[in-house]
Design goal:
This protein has 154 residues and is of the alpha+beta class. The chain has a domain at 21-119. It has three helices and seven strands, in the order βββαββββαα. Strands 1-2-3-7-6-5-4 form a seven-stranded antiparallel β-sheet, covered by helices on one side. Strand 2 and strand 3 (39-41) form a beta hairpin. Helix 1 crosses helix 2. The longest helix has 27 residues, at 108-134. Bound molecules: zinc ion (2 copies). Residues 13, 15-16, 18, 33, 35-36, 38 line the site of one zinc ion.
Amino acid sequence: MTSETQQQEAMKCIEDGSALEPSKTSGEPSMRCPVCEGAWLTDEALHAIEDKSFDPDLVKGQMRYGEHDTDHACPHCGDLMTRFRYRGHGLEIEACPNEAGYWLDHGEDRHIKDALKDRQRGLRRSAGAQRDWHATRRGEKLSLVDRIKALFGR
Ligand SMILES: [Zn+2]
Ligand SMILES: [Zn+2]
């Protein structure tokens, strides 16, 4: 009995072509390469990582900086993936051009958490300083947004 079902859908690692195995990332389903430990994350899984490391009341800011094409085929749809600097940090991750998900090399989910924690610390500091300056002017929220724009808007 050789039943190669029409389950041709098996997703492959973009680095080494190994079949990805079902896994979990921050409680959300993801796919992980058993060889290089790269991972395919859906939007939900990426946001689950972010929500575990970042206070939802703080603005996360723009996610994609310096986006450009790659010659890696998306494991999900086969179109060429794009690559961008995650939230302006040194970390570069690849994404499905059709927004099906993201590819993270081994350990990059850890970097995402670190990047967000850094940012959160920075925002808390500047929010505190801003509160003093603008206490008598507008609401805290607006001044925080202005402050973020000043910091990250370049
Ligand atoms: Zn791999
Ligand atoms: Zn895709």
